[in-house]
């Protein structure tokens, strides 16, 4: 396999399917089966999911919440998504551990780096919930931080499009796709892949990013086998 240990970053919105909010059981089942297919090939898998399908902290200020309160509500939403994915994985006999940055022992294990590494070495899927545990940081930053800590080979960022384009391909039909691109080029072209804090962490720690369409059947397996899927960002 091309990659031995990966961190998969999924948006909360991807769990909505065609709904306006919440979790679509079909999407949950699809993602669990996709993850199962690479676990079967002995790839060690960690996952971070956003919470945007349940709550968007950054929009909460307009509803009268301050940013810190809103961000904490968003972190709890990521734990709900993590519990849902854990249930979906365990229903197909994939051993899974949910680790959270916010302590709630009745629900999940607290995040401890050495325990996370041990779970991965034992072939368990590790889901990181609760973001970084701090407000003002996105789940992109949480994913990058955890990927660096667990010494992942790459971040696989699952999106609705099949890579990075010169412009938004959903709005501009003439947008051109990059197969590979450097960190410097992404910054120069002002391409919006993930937030700047997360992106800078990847750049400084030489952690490659692969952006791909998670909804295309088999794409996760093909990436882990080294096929040219999506767009690779590296030095």
Q: Secondary-structure element order, as H and E?
A: EHEHEEHEHEEEEHHEHE
- Gross morphology is globular
- CA(first)-CA(last) distance: 22 Å
CATH class value: Alpha Beta
Number of spatially distinct domains? 1
- Tally of contiguous helical segments: 7
In the CATH hierarchy, the third-tier topology is known as: Carbamate kinase
Number of strands: 11
Strand order, sheet with most strands = 4-3-5-2-1-6-10-11-9
Please summarize the sheet with the most strands.
9 strands, mixed
- In the CATH hierarchy, what is the architecture at level 2? 3-Layer(aba) Sandwich
Strand content: 15-25%
Mean model confidence by pLDDT? 91
Radius of gyration computed on alpha carbons:
17 Å
DSSP helix fraction? 25-40%
Give a summary of the structure in a few sentences.
By secondary structure, the protein is α/β, with parallel strands linked by helices. The chain has seven helices and eleven strands. It has one domain: 3-Layer(aba) Sandwich (Carbamate kinase), CATH 3.40.1160.
Describe this structure in words.
This protein has helices at 25-39, 67-90, 113-121, 139-149, 183-188, 196-204, 219-224, and strands spanning 5-10, 44-49, 96-100, 109-110, 125-129, 154-159, 164-165, 177-178, 180-182, 209-213, 231-234. The chain is of the alpha/beta class and 235 residues long. The protein has a nine-stranded mixed beta sheet, sandwiched between helices. A two-stranded antiparallel ribbon has the order 7-8. Helix 1 (25-39) crosses helix 2 (67-90) and helix 4 packs parallel to helix 6. The longest helix is centred in the middle third of the chain and has 24 residues, at 67-90. The two termini are 22 Å apart.
């Amino acid at each position: 396999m091309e990659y031995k240990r990966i961190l998969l970053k999924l948006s909360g919105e991807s769990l909505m399917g065609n709904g306006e909010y919440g979790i679509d059981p079909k999407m949950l089942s699809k993602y669990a089966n996709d993850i199962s297919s690479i676990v079967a090939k002995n790839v060690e898998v960690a996952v971070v999911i956003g919470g945007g399908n349940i709550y968007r902290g950054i929009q909460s200020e307009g509803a009268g919440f301050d940013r810190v309160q809103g961000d904490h509500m968003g972190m709890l939403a990521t734990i709900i998504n993590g519990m849902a994915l854990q249930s979906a994985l365990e229903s197909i006999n994939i051993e899974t551990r949910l680790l959270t940055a916010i302590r709630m022992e009745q629900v999940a294990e607290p995040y401890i780096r050495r325990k996370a590494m041990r779970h991965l070495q034992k072939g368990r899927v590790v889901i990181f919930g609760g973001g970084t545990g701090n407000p003002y940081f996105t789940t992109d930053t949480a994913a990058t931080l955890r990927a660096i800590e667990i010494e992942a080979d790459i971040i696989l960022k699952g999106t609705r499009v099949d890579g990075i384009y010169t412009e938004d391909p959903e709005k501009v039909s003439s947008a051109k796709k990059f197969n590979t691109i450097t960190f410097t080029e992404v910054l120069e072209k002002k391409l919006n892949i993930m937030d700047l804090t997360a992106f800078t962490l990847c750049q400084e720690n030489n952690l490659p990013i692969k952006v791909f369409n998670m909804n295309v059947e088999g794409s996760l397996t093909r990436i882990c086998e080294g096929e040219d899927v999506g767009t690779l960002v590296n030095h």
